[in-house]
Specification:
Layout: E1 13-18, E2 24-29, E3 33-40, E4 45-52, H1 53-62, H2 64-73
Antiparallel strand pairs: 1-2, 3-4
Helix pairs in contact: 1-2
């Protein structure tokens, strides 16, 4: 599963791990991606989305119908 949120488009961030001796090594900050199933009344079916924890809160706030309409408007498949 890719580390990309279908709702917000969140992708991994990159930076450094800094050790006690201050040696810096590359690291990757992945978003908290969850695979969630939602019933979408407007489509009349269940959809599976890869969403971040913040994306789940966005769905709770706006509603699944609005979020799925935005995803479909971008041309993504649900």
């Amino acid at each position: 599963m890719s580390a990309r949120c279908q709702v917000l488009g969140t992708t991994p961030g990159f930076g450094h791990s800094v050790s006690h001796s201050h040696v810096r090594t590359k690291r990757r900050f992945n978003p908290n991606i969850q695979r969630k199933h939602y019933w979408v009344p407007s489509l009349g079916r269940r959809v599976t989305l890869n969403v971040s924890a913040r994306g789940i809160k966005t769905i709770d706030k706006l509603g699944i119908d609005v979020v799925v309409a935005r995803i479909l408007a971008r041309g993504e498949k649900v």
